[in-house]
Amino acid sequence: MSLASKYNPSTSESKWYQYWMDHQLFQSKVDHNKEPFSIVIPPPNVTGVLHMGHMLNNTIQDILIRKARMEGKNACWVPGTDHASIATEAKVVAMLKEKGIDKKSLTREEFLSHAWEWKEKYGGIILEQLKKLGASCDWDRTKFTMDEDLSRAVISVFVDLHNKGKIYRGIRMVNWDPQGRTALSDDEVIVKEIPSKLYYIQYAIEDSEEFLTIATTRPETIMADVAICIHPEDDRFSHLKGKKALIPLINRAIPIIEDDYVDREFGTGCLKITPAHDINDYEIGLRHKLEVIDILNDDGTLNEKAQILVGEDRFVARKKIAKLLKEANQLAKEESYSSNVGHSERTDAVIEPRLSMQWFLQMTDITKPALAAVMDDSIKLFPPKFKNMYRSWMENVRDWCISRQLWWGHRIPAYYLPNGEYVVAKSMEEAVKLANASFDTTFTAEDLRQDDDVLDTWFSSWLWPISVFDADFFETGKKNQDLSYYYPTNDLVTAPEILFFWVARMIIAGYEYTGEKPFKNVYLTGIVRDKLGRKMSKSLGNSPDPLELIKNFGADGVRTGMLFSSPAGNDLPFDEKLVEQGRNFSNKIWNAYRLISGWEISESEMPNENKASIHWFGNRFQQTLAEIEDHFVKFRISDALMSTYKLVWDDFCSWYLEMIKPAYQAPIDRETYEHTLVYFENILKILHPFMPFISEELWHQIKERESKEALIVSAWPTMTSFENKVIEDAQHIFDVISQVRNIRASKGISPKEALALTVKTKRTDLYESFEGILVKLANLSSVSFGEQVEQAVSFVVKSDECFIPISEKINVAEEKENLVQEINYTKGFLQSVMKKLGNERFVASAPADVVEKEQQKQADAESKLKILEESLEKLS
User: The domain 546-722 is classified under which CATH number: 1.10.10.10, 1.10.730.10, 1.20.140.10, 3.40.920.10?
Assistant: First the structure.
């Protein structure tokens, strides 16, 4: 095939993705002759479009699945989307509002009809976008958390856990989202530090001229006050014990109580107690049997119990209350204050603590196997630093509030009876039977009312690694063929912020229902941030459009660009220059093959220098392959890419191709050419997981291939032993060549002018074996061995002193300055090596070969330092 002068990503990407799809190369079916390798996608919200976090996460998943596929494993990557109750309902409500339709005017069925219509229209966008990235998912397995079978699984689990006594219903203080109008679990609340104010409000003491001043950030809740609390050991207020205070503006009398919860140093040292609107106040209220007055509606407006400002939004009411207090001379002062305030993870609304009847999952016992599994590394977290965070959360876990006051989602299978009781069943028919059996009466479906709430979205996605393979398992208790084969899955790639939302809960469900872990490894990616360190988001306008990046730089360029600085668990400081570097890498690979494919081939004998080059690169490739494998085992994906990048850019393009390249318009011998093609094919193989499109394109440029020979399903290179000495010897010669080139550049000597090289060395055999390469790449007229050469520029490589005679007079001062600089650098290097070797822990725990390398570095540096100092002495 003729090769275009320039790589065109857009043409290549659409062509090869369609090719992979047409030949079903992403598809996976149970095959007991192959080792399974399965990954389930963290299901993106159906409301979502591709953002930079998705790009990073799915690139890493695709790299893992493509490598496993090439290793001969039965690779199965299951895609899907999450119904995202809160976010989707908000989108549908907004869409209806634009049409002039109020949700309140619709029945539940009418609203859900609109929601399903919206989902069918927009719900698959993000999965289509992932294809542009190159995601090699088995699209035939695509699942949605509200698919009929997955919905049955959720209901079965709810019924089962309720029957086990692990799900209960009760009035508790919950996190309330006034915008979403639903309860949230603790994990769905993001605490932000925001500028606020402390309002110092004066409460009159009943039947007295005295006042108590209370500092609060929430003056709009004073109408819900039921007590004032002082510390029992605070002498300042002890005389007020048993008295009453009057709430400003409404003059309702409330008792003054004592509790050691009070922080005597905060504010004025006493608190107003509002049990309906603060979790700590609620606990105090329980201890002192205080009344609970809830003055807020579910949308955050004040209700009739507030007595004043009824119908006003809570934040509007705050300002108005402050104004009214000033006018009544009951506001002593205001001062600026930074306050930690909970926000809804979905709507970003400020959370209200609220007493509410909700459904909960008791977490104390069900979490124990999941905690042990991570602590004993049955499930490994990468990086392991997240283990402590995981343990802390699991050991202090609260019961999970699983009900949501929404219509979009899995409706809670609880049915209320006319007598005030309820039954939990998988269907209305079952509920009627159960009700009649339980209460020895005759109920019909018309007598029962199903709970209006739906389940927390995470209550479906915590079953994801099981339900995507066998949703009926939760009903039958028997694993189908898919679940038996693919479960537990291998790797999970996700973001640290959902370690508790999702990862921990999947582990809990896995042990509860299968007795097994749901996955073996969890790779936690970092957060994609801009150059200022801010998290990329649409609201800040600091996030590039991923599809636009792909259009401008190619999917391979974007994939590699994102990984160039993305170690596990550490945030990615995204810079478009990284993506540009990725595109340049694509061009480098393309041009390397253009060079190779342009050579004419002769049947002449292979030159010795080519034999040395081929021998070296074969060893260097195997050394890099071992590095790459080690990085993958440790989930250092960006390091694996960097090893690949250096092998291709530096070793193959900058050294190997230059070493074997024939003279201008001269042919290359067939044996060298064929070795080079084999090396290039192996390079394409290790590139493929990172850069699937250009690698597949060039794979087919080399020769015509059948679909079963496509690169995506070709065999991963086999690891063999390699000779370190060959690699080190070659590097020694490369260092000499680089030094000669540096001398040319610093002295203004033309690259075309051949130079003589004299080397003072004990290893003449090394130079003789690489002489052809030295002469070719450094443009030398000769290589000789001997002592110091007069009128020459010298340099040192390890313990060898090299001399290049030049015709012009040597600038002694300049040479001395260069030597001093190199001596100082070598001393610094030697000092760092000595420090490492002086560390007893390093010497005792590091592998023997690593310690040996450091000792060799020490010996080389000491030898080089000695030669440099001798050279400086001769010039003095």
Answer: 1.10.730.10
| Domain limits, the chain | 195-345, 546-722, 751-875
The closest of 365, 341, 338, 360 to 351, measured between CA atoms, is 341
Q: How many residues does the chain have?
A: 876
Report the alpha-carbon distance of residue 196 to residue 199 in Å, rounded.
10
pLDDT, residue 204, reads: 95
Answer positive or negative: Cα dihedral of 161, 166, 172, 176: negative
Report DSSP state, residue 502.
I
Give 492's strand partners.
Answer: 522
pLDDT tens profile 48-60:
888 888 999 999 9
pLDDT at 571: 79
Residue 10 has pLDDT above 70, yes or no: yes
Here the tokens at position 448 are 């029962």
DSSP 414-474: EEE-TTS-EEE-SSHHHHHHHHHHHHTS---GGG-EE-S-EE-THHHHTTHHHHTT-TTHH
- DSSP assignment letter at 305: G
The full DSSP string for 91-149 is: HHHHHHHHTT--GGGS-HHHHHHHHHHHHHHHTTHHHHHHHHHT----GGG-EETTSHH
Contact 460/84 with Cβ under 8 angstroms? no
Q: What is the pLDDT of residues 76-114, one digit of tens each?
A: 999 999 999 988 998 999 999 999 999 989 999 999 999
Whether residue 795 contacts residue 868, with contact meaning beta carbons closer than 8 Å, is answered with: no
CATH architecture label of 195-345: Alpha-Beta Complex (3.90)
